[in-house]
Design goal:
This protein is α+β, with helices and mostly antiparallel strands. The chain has two domains: 39-174, no CATH class; 178-242, 2-Layer Sandwich (Wheat Germ Agglutinin (Isolectin 2), domain 1), CATH 3.30.60. The chain is 19% helix and 30% strand. The strands form four sheets. The protein has a four-stranded mixed sheet with strand order 1-5-6-8, with no helix packed on it. A four-stranded antiparallel sheet has the order 2-7-4-3, covered by helices on one side.
Length: 245
C-alpha cells in the first residue's frame, strides 16, 4: 500500500514530466514555424587558409566553389590542384575518412589582395536531439568581396576537416561591421566574439528568442555557467569555453 503522500509525490512527478515534455515540444514546433532550427555547435580543424588557392586560379569567370570531400582519392586530386603553384609541393595532410571529411570554400577570382576573404565561421548539427537518422550539418561561411589595396590576383580559400556527416548545406553571409561591445549593436542584438575570446572585434548577431531545454553547459565571458549555447547568446554573452565555469 502506497501512503497518500507517496501517491501525491508520484502524481506531481508525472505532472512535472508532462509539463516539461509539452514545453519542449512547443519550443521545437515554434522554432520550425519561425523558420529556425535548433542546433548544436560542432568543432572543426583548419587544414589550410589563405588568399591564393591554385584551384582554378587565374580563371576570370571562376566565381567560387563549395566542395565536400569524403574519400582519399578525391582529396589527393583536389590537394594537387590547390597547391600546384607551390614549389616544392606541400605533402597531403592526413585525414581519416572513416570518421572525418574535408570541407572547402573558395571565394573565386579576385583582382586585389588585402581585402577579399572567405572563412568558415561555424558548423552546427541540426536537430541533435531528435530521432532523425543521420546528421544534417549547416556550415556558416563569411565572405568579403570588397577590393583590397594590393594590385594582385587572389583566390581566397578556407579548408577544414570535421566529423563526417550525411547531409551538408552551406550558408553565406557578408562580413559585417565590427563591434567591440553590446552597446554598438541594436536592441535585439549582441556583440558575438569568436569562441574562446571575450574581446573584439566581434559581430552584431540577433539574440535567440527561444532555446531548447537540454543541458550542454557553457562558460560565458561573464564567468557564469549557462545551460547551453543558446541561453548564453540569449543573455547577450559570448562563450569562453564549452563546460561549466
Amino acid at each position: 500500500m502506497i501512503p497518500q503522500g507517496g501517491r501525491d509525490g508520484v502524481k506531481k512527478l508525472l505532472l512535472d514530466y508532462k509539463f516539461h515534455l509539452i514545453i519542449t515540444s512547443l519550443l521545437i514546433i515554434s522554432s520550425l514555424l519561425q523558420g529556425t532550427a535548433l542546433s548544436q555547435s560542432i568543432s572543426f580543424e583548419t587544414i589550410d587558409k589563405g588568399e591564393v588557392s591554385y584551384f582554378r586560379y587565374g580563371y576570370p569567370d571562376f566565381s567560387g566553389s563549395e566542395i565536400v570531400i569524403k574519400d582519399w582519392k578525391t582529396w589527393a586530386w583536389f590537394w594537387k590542384r590547390h597547391t600546384e603553384g607551390i614549389q616544392p609541393p606541400p605533402p597531403l595532410p592526413k585525414v581519416d575518412f572513416r570518421t572525418e571529411m574535408v570541407l572547402v570554400v573558395i571565394l573565386g577570382h579576385q583582382t586585389s589582395g588585402g581585402g577579399p576573404s572567405i572563412e568558415i565561421k561555424s558548423i552546427e548539427e541540426i536537430f541533435p536531439f531528435t530521432n532523425i537518422s543521420g546528421k544534417r550539418v549547416r556550415v556558416l561561411v563569411q565572405e568579403n568581396r570588397e577590393p583590397g589595396p594590393l594590385d594582385v590576383i587572389t583566390n581566397p580559400y578556407h579548408i577544414i576537416k570535421v566529423p563526417k556527416s550525411i547531409s551538408i548545406f552551406f550558408e553565406h553571409e557578408t562580413m559585417e561591421k565590427a563591434c567591440f561591445d553590446n552597446s554598438q549593436c541594436s536592441e535585439n542584438q549582441f556583440c558575438l566574439f569568436q569562441e574562446g575570446k571575450c574581446s573584439g572585434p566581434g559581430e552584431c548577431k540577433p539574440k535567440p528568442e527561444l532555446c531548447p531545454l537540454f543541458y550542454a553547459p557553457v562558460c560565458g565571458c561573464d564567468m557564469k555557467t549557462y545551460g547551453n549555447q543558446c541561453e548564453a547568446y540569449g543573455s547577450g554573452i559570448s562563450i569562453l569555453y564549452n563546460d561549466e565555469c
